[in-house]
Amino acid sequence: MVGDGDNADDIVQDTFLVLYEALDKGTSIEYPGTWLYKVTYHKSLDCLQRKKRLIPLETINRSTIERQEASSERDTTSLEKMEQEALINAILSRMKPRERALLALYSEHCSYKEMAEATGLRFTSVGKTLSRALDALENQLKQHGYEAY
Q: By C-alpha distance, which of 38, 44, 27 is closest to 113?
């Protein structure tokens, strides 16, 4: 969701610190998985607000990928995978944070109820919002010659 591994690591660490502090205070957490998603979502939003960073699709530069290929002995498959990941990250960075969160939760096989609780959306809005986010992702991938599955 934040598009940066270091920031994601910090968010995970902060989330578990909040969990530890909550449990240390004796707070009862009925659904720990959903609780963790919700805290992670809000910490990710905070990070995005601090960074206000978008990765334009135009910054995916083939010459950068070609230099990486020349400097290492990666096979064609891993190079293509890196290119696909860069494209997906760029597309996701242009989406609204709530849409990115829903896509991330969807990829984790969360239920609509869990998605609603984690993002603060109404349960009845999750399906439509997720569907729009998936359609937008698919359309962007098609524009760049990829097919979503």
A: 38
Cβ-Cβ contacts under 8 Å for 123 (sequence gap 6 or more): 112, 113, 116
DSSP secondary structure code for residue 58 in this structure:
G
**Residue tagged 């890196």 (tokens):** 82
How confident is the model over 40-91, as pLDDT tens digits? 888 888 877 776 544 444 444 554 555 555 555 555 667 677 777 788 878 8
Which residues, at least 6 apart from 119, have a Cβ–Cβ distance to it below 8 Å? 38, 41, 98, 101, 102, 105, 126
Distance CA 28, CA 33 (A): 13
Count how many Cα atoms sit within 13 Å of the Cα of residue 125 in the half-sphere of its side chain.
9
Q: Is pTM, for the whole model, over 0.70?
A: no
Instruction: Take residue 4 and report the two structure tokens written for it.
Output: 């940066």
What's the confidence (pLDDT) of residue 132? Answer: 92
